[in-house]
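Standup notes
- DV: blocked on the single-chain target, sequence here:
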Amino acid sequence: MVDNVRAKKALGQNFLTDPKIAQLMVDSVDASSDDRIIEIGSGTGALTQYLSSICTSQNAYLTAVEFDIDLIPILKSKIVESAYVKIINANILNLLDSLEIPEKARLKIVGSLPYNITSPLTHKLIKTNPMPEICVFLIQKEVARKICQQAPNSNYLSVFVQTFYKAEILKIVNKNLFDPIPQVDGAVIKLTRKGFDLNSLDISRYEKWLHHVFSHPRKMLNKVFTKDELEKYRLDGTERAQNYESTKYLELYTASM
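- DV (later): unblocked, structure below
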């Protein structure tokens, strides 16, 4: 086990053992002066050690967040806290509700995510104020591919995420590079913020609308919407939800507002 720590299956813990992957993730965050960087799931510090060094040299601020209180002493034995580096024990889903980010600072998120929180966390980040400029995550390979899908193979998650972010897979990560070894490979995915903004209420409405659009993804849209709704949203009833990309959905949705 990494650092003689026994991973907790209930928390979905699989510790990254390859420093090259950690370095790739840290470099991809592109830390610069006055950035506010949050690391999710610091674990035993595989990324945190690189992040803390870079943030200190770049005058960026790092908050390393770890949910497992048993790992906090390990992190604090490796990482020197300072004005630029803080280690906290918290649930990231709760922490995002109380963020205080200076107006001109850029929020960036990085971390190796437990596979079961990838989707709810991504939705939460999109609704966070301010919305993160860059997210770099190590997640399940198939989920990363799903997020990056394009028409004619679009899906709800790809459309929702790509409305706000450019999504790209940086690296496939073999499952053998984790301890303990999970059942599936991982992937490093980078999300880079697009310029378009919706307020949080509009995002929630847009999210609900997309859920309806993709409620029967294999059926033609005239089986999902009424004739009046098809006209309102200027949708072709003979098409299927998977045939449109995020830019088209955003265009159709905003035109109907």
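- Follow-up: The mean pLDDT is 90.
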